[in-house]
Amino acid sequence: MAIPEFIRNIRAKAGDVLLLMPGVVMVVFDEQGRILLNQRTDSGRWALISGIPDPGEQPAQAAVREILEETGVSAVVERVLSVFSNEPIVYPNGDHAQYLDIVLRCRAVGGEARVNDDESLDVRWFARDELPPLGPIALSRIELALTDQPTWFVPADPPAAG
């Protein structure tokens, strides 16, 4: 996965300490209801399209940009599905990160699904009953995108009585 220049600049000063990073994850549907996935270069696994907003970039704009950059598909954002803080991870180079993901339901409006950058080995549309192996978090995000549920988030504990 390409490291954005602004992250390289932060890492040059902060080293490999844990960084809380914004992320956008998109569940993209076409007019047949198929879901757009990419096979990631870094892991070889199939995944929902995702990325990091640039400084000053709104999440929806980052989503539209990332979908086009990674897959060649033009899309519009329809709604926020969830806001979710992932478990911290350690990259092979030793960098620590934790992503706060904004998950968005999107609709394709043009373009052709293809590998469009060096972050994907393959890009394809999948019918819901033909999905490749995906992790439980990705599957739950797809399920949420298929409902009219309100935006999902982990509820806060009630404040301590004082």
TrEMBL record:
Chain ranges passing through the membrane: none
Domain of life: Bacteria
Pfam assignment, any one: NUDIX
The keyword Chloroplast is assigned to this record: no
Cofactor: Mg(2+)
Coiled coil: none
Residues annotated as domain Nudix hydrolase: 19-150
Keywords: Hydrolase
Protein's name according to its UniProt entry: NUDIX domain-containing protein
